[in-house]
Design goal:
Blueprint lengths: L6 E6 L2 E3 L10 E6 L4 E8 L4 E9 L2 E11 L9 E5 L8 E3 L2 H8 L2
Antiparallel strand pairs: 1-2, 1-3, 3-4, 4-5, 5-6, 6-7, 7-8
Length: 108
């Protein structure tokens, strides 16, 4: 996978949202990069965990771009980390402080 692209547009329920929009509680959203690649992000939530699957959508063909897992470090009150995993990775490929940057890290 090449270096990360920038997110150019994010839509929630078909409406564009700003960079300040809190994507964490949103069950599904789409984004397009500055390279014009389209992605769908779907949240899966359990009692103890929240994870997002990031899928690239290209002319009807879908391929996994990776996953993001939300973690709350116990050492720093109020902080959180979004660890992202590229397809097939056993260990985290990195982390970001918010979901927007984490999914952007998986994009091309």
């Amino acid at each position: 996978m090449s270096s990360s692209a920038n997110i150019a547009l994010v839509t929630v329920d078909g409406s564009e949202v700003s960079r300040d929009y809190d994507l964490d509680p949103v069950p599904e959203f789409e984004f397009v990069t500055d390279e014009n690649n389209s992605y769908r992000v779907i949240m899966e939530e359990t009692e103890s965990d929240r994870m997002w699957t990031v899928t690239r959508v290209d002319s009807g063909h879908e391929s996994e771009a990776g996953t993001v897992r939300h973690e709350k470090p116990w050492l720093i009150f109020g902080s959180s980390a979004h660890r992202y995993f590229k397809p097939g990775a056993t260990f985290s490929s990195g982390f970001q402080n918010d979901l927007w940057n984490a999914v952007q890290s998986l994009a091309e």
